[in-house]
Request: fold
Amino acid sequence: MREHMSPMDHTHDENDDEGSMARGDLYNAVKNATELFKMIKPGDNLEGWVAAKITKAADYLNTVHDYMAYESQYQNPDPVGEEYMESLNNRLHQMIVEAKKKPSAGLSKEKKSAIVKKAKSGKDIGKKGKSFDKVAKAAGGGEKGKRIAAAAMWKNAAREG
Reply:
């Protein structure tokens, strides 16, 4: 009868590269999650399958994390890579802070006012021939279109600085 061994008990041999592969997968997951976090704004309507995939991915990662954290209580954790992980955590935190900033952050009150007046008067909001109303209509109209046009307007204003 074979005794149950946890993945944490598995000995490393020369052909076993699962740890490196998992780290590569996790790196890509973090990179993609960070980019998605920037793409998805509060209040965005996501298609059902998109929300379900994000929920499933988060659940899978949480389950593995909880298991690994529990298992590591009973082992002497290898400190190699702790500095790197702390650095990664700090960079991710900074990226989240940056993603939460309003596009108009850093613009003076006068500059913000001028941009809003320009948009209300029907002038271009960044690219030639692209007024606020045209962008809003092209984005589907209604409140959603207005939010998209406003985001484009502030993004272009931030670029112009």
About this structure: Confidence is low (pLDDT under 50) at residues 1-8. The radius of gyration is 23 Å. DSSP finds six helices and no strands in the chain.
